[in-house]
Structure to design on (227 residues):
């Protein structure tokens, strides 16, 4: 298994632009998580899905952020419009069950200028 | 805010020495997990200890959990330069409205010098 696959690895965009981050979880895992990591705030859970259904999105910063999981093998995190304070590394992780260990992707480093 | 707080924030040791990292948390948990993150990479799951367990071993790793003190420790024995990384504890807790949530601590930066 190739693990959790995220794309792109790096994204540089101008303020106000739409950004879409993509994630392919491990096949068979039914829980998917989006985290954001910054020096100031550490690792923050943004949203998680169980069986493709959003369970907890209380960590989504504001309406500019949205996430979808149209099927078991694909999820997106969209920021529209992007702002410089959104600059961070965004991780996707999947798990067989929520109370099991998570497998993380390599992350997308987002820079908004 | 972070559920887990790790101590120390940074640790520097010589190769061959043992490294101990501590984690404290605030709420009741289902389990506690430890992860490693190498610079510029994603997190890697190391070990999971359930709330009814007190100690667990995996290779050179030893994890303890004291639910009465809401604390855990990770011991890495006979450290190697390749162990240099950030280590995070993460607590798995039940959400009030249903579902579970894994919340990460602030991390300990471990540097193992030759």
């Amino acid at each position: 298994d190739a693990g959790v696959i995220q794309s792109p690895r790096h994204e540089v965009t101008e303020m106000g632009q739409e950004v879409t981050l993509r994630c392919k979880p491990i096949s068979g895992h039914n829980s998917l998580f989006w985290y954001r990591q910054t020096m100031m705030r550490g690792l923050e859970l943004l949203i998680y899905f169980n069986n493709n259904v959003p369970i907890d999105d209380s960590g989504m910063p504001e309406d500019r952020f949205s996430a979808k999981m149209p099927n078991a093998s694909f999820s997106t995190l969209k920021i529209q419009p992007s702002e410089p304070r959104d600059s961070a590394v965004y991780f996707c992780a999947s798990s067989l069950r929520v109370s099991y260990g998570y497998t993380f992707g390599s992350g997308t480093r987002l820079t908004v200028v | 805010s972070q559920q887990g707080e790790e101590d120390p924030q940074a640790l520097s040791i010589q190769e061959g020495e043992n490294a101990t990292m501590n984690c404290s948390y605030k709420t009741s948990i289902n389990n506690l997990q430890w992860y490693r993150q190498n610079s510029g990479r994603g997190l890697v799951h190391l070990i999971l200890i359930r709330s009814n367990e007190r100690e667990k071993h995996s290779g050179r790793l030893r994890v303890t959990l004291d639910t009465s003190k809401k604390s855990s420790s990770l011991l890495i024995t006979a450290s190697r330069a390749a162990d240099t990384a950030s280590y995070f504890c993460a607590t798995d807790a039940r959400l009030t409205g249903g579902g579970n949530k894994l919340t990460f601590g602030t991390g300990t930066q471990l540097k193992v010098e030759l």
